[in-house]
Design brief:
Order of helices and strands: HHEHEHEEEEEHHEHEEH
Helix content: 25-40%
Structural class: alpha/beta
CATH topology of the largest domain: Aspartate Aminotransferase, domain 2
Strand order of the largest sheet: 1-7-6-5-4-2-3
Number of domains: 2
Radius of gyration: 20 Å
Strand content: 5-15%
Number of helices: 8
CATH class of the largest domain: Alpha Beta
Shape: globular
Number of strands: 10
Length: about 300
């Protein structure tokens, strides 16, 4: 059985990313290893890349190279077209210029967010605007689309490693032009070797990571559908999900209340604002019992709190 409505001082800790407390010691003991450099050089052949402390820093570096004027606009596009966009993105843009969710005469840069591991549709058509493109692949490190365009269209592409690997920090900026490689200001250079050590350890397990995420997704899809909660996105070939998102539009569920309920059970989660949808972890470190716990927490909410 699982304990529901636990003592708040004795909660489990499930994050959207795969980092767990045990990874502190596991990562600490890893030897210096630069294998990840070889992987990235092969994957991004003909391009340049630089490690950053996080995805926000990668966005900042891309915009620093593009040098928009204060009156310029970055037009943000997302997979769903939903109005929601993380403040982590908008705050970085606001350091340089304005942003909009639609094209305006002042648009000088296109920012494409591949949401939750799901590629923006018909990405190549954006080249017709003849504007610099930044692809946000923060949660889509392993995802691909049918024409293999994700991560290949942008002049700059950003990644956030904690969304896919058991890390607390780490980002990457990939570019078509030679960007000045350097470490973030005020950061200990040793942290970048640490990031590479962890990535080198896990990149050799990438096939298992992908397989496990898809397996977990399918388990959650089946169990939550039995509660009348169906997937928000179809899991097409090539997609490696960053979360499990389900629709609640016909359920009458109080989504803000559901968020409080999941967090009160130690499960990081959120409403997909702008839609009647909700997302929970799906990462590779979760066991079938963890997924069953998520299901039980959801079932209890529907039975006791959510109507």
């Amino acid at each position: 059985m699982f304990v529901v409505f636990p003592d708040p001082y004795s909660l489990p800790s499930y994050r959207i990313g795969p980092f767990r407390t045990i990874d502190l010691s596991v990562n600490h003991l890893l030897p210096d290893n630069n294998l990840i450099d070889d992987y990235l050089k092969t994957r991004f052949k003909g391009k340049y890349f630089t490690y950053r402390i996080n995805g926000r820093s990668a966005i900042n570096l891309a915009l620093s190279h593009l040098r928009p004027d204060r009156g310029d606009v970055v037009t943000i596009l997302t997979t769903t077209g939903n109005f929601y966009i993380s403040s982590c993105v908008t705050r970085e843009i606001e350091k340089f210029c304005k942003w909009s969710r639609e094209f305006v005469p002042e648009t000088r840069i296109i920012f494409v967010n591949h949401e939750f591991g799901y590629p923006f549709p018909d990405l190549k058509r954006l080249k017709d605007f003849n504007l610099p493109i930044i692809e946000d692949c923060a949660g889509s490190f392993f995802s691909s689309d049918k024409d293999k365009s994700i991560g290949e269209v942008g002049d700059f592409v950003i990644y956030s490693f904690p969304k896919m690997f058991p890390l607390q920090v780490g980002g990457l900026l990939v570019s078509r032009q030679n960007i000045e490689e350097g470490y973030d200001a005020n950061q200990n250079p040793l942290i970048f070797q640490y990031i590479k050590n962890v990535l080198s350890e896990y990149i050799e397990k990438k096939d298992a990571i992908i397989r496990k995420r898809i397996e977990n997704y399918l388990i959650l899809k089946e169990s939550f559908s039995s509660l009348g909660l169906n997937e928000r996105f179809p899991l097409d070939d090539g997609i490696v999900p960053n979360v499990f998102m389900f629709k609640a539009d016909a359920s009458g569920i109080d989504l803000p209340g559901l968020k409080k309920h999941f967090w009160a059970h130690g499960i990081q989660s959120s409403v997909f604002y702008g839609e009647d949808a909700f997302f929970i972890p799906v990462h590779q470190a979760l066991t079938p019992y963890d997924l069953e716990y998520f299901y039980e927490v959801m079932k209890v909410f529907i039975q006791n709190l959510g109507r």
